[in-house]
Amino acid sequence: MTERHDCDCLVVGGGPAGGALATILTSFGRSVVLVDDGRAKHAIAEETLVPGAARRIEACGLTQVFAEHHFFGVRRQGVIWNSDETAWRDNADHERGLKIERGVFDRALRAHVRELGATVLEGYRARKLPACGHGTVTVESDSGDPVEVEARAIVVATGRGRHSALFPAEVEAKGAATMTFAFNGKTEPPLDDATLIEAVPAGWLWWIPRRGGGTCVAAFVDAAELKDCGHDEIVRHAIANSRGARFEGDLGAPVYGANGTPRLLRPTGGIFVCGDAASIVDALSSQGVEKALASAEDTAHAIDTVLDHPELRPALLAHRHVWERRLWRAHLRQATSWYTSERRFVERPFWQTRQRPDWLASVLGRDTVLQAAAVESRTAVRRSARGFQPVDGMGIVGELTCIATIGSVPVDSLLQLVERPTTVEQAVNRAREQAALFTLTPKAVVDALQMLVDDGFVGAEEG
pTM here? Predict the structure, then answer.
């Protein structure tokens, strides 16, 4: 007889995003089934988190998991960027942040979820999910044993792998094509309690000590140059000529290789998507775990709401996509600022293709001409202490995107500023005449209009 489970939410994927999501939902009193195929969902064996991530960890209910495994950060951080010298920073205890072993962390997350009362099916894989985002799902073990799960909501949190068989989606935007390779070994000089980021002609390197001894280095290189010149010429040459550290003996084979291209997906069905499954950020701006936790927290509140108010599913899906898009763009902007600050290798392919991404909207100037896109009134959602509340919002005609405010500023009031072709300077002047906007500074108005341009609500052309 086939094993069967009924639950509020089926979470597919047991990495940081899926584990954190399941933790939050169980704390809300929701029944959860978490399915994990047992495969590693990380490119690098160990990752770091900044000290500020502690607030996110607490919000996700994971403080105990981190405390039990002593995921303490490093005492020194080094950077070799736009210079041949290493700039070192010594961290006080409160500045060390966290350093996690991904395999240990992921397993601890799943064990924590199980202790909280969720059903965890390890070594199982979902082959197909209902596009509507709820219903019966059959998952299978590696030996082919089926389990049926009846779920009122479904979330995919399977990391950066291919998801075309799990949920319908389109690639909305991509960064420069990147490949990532990780190697383990012992370095000279030793990096026992220090991390190092280093720009090299073929890309950049990230050195991080391993808890059990030795060091992991991840090489991030241009996919097109790798294809043209080969692995040895690009990856091995980059690591061999590092100024910051060297491996003792032969480099050996990479322990991991993966597509590290930043990309943003636009789901087109009723399934919620979380973590790297929704968007992959550039590793130079974030190694991914903190982003996964933030995505999980937002998704958990969306699921908690849709379980009680299924009529809000379209608005909640729209919110999730806008949330992922804004975070993705913010990370790509941060990474681009790093890439453009490195001037030693600007003629090399890796650095040429990362100077100004095509998707990055122009920064608004006073003479930039703005005009609102075709929009319509639609139900949006606004975050509350727990879950979301419905509010009157605006949506782009024919698209999923729907929002109510930019910060505390009503979107409809902002769109009235640019109903017809209008320069940024003219829009700022008009804002002084609107009751909902007159208290805003000119910079606040411009920042809000910039976000509307980024979200596609307003078109922009140089005047």
Answer: 0.93
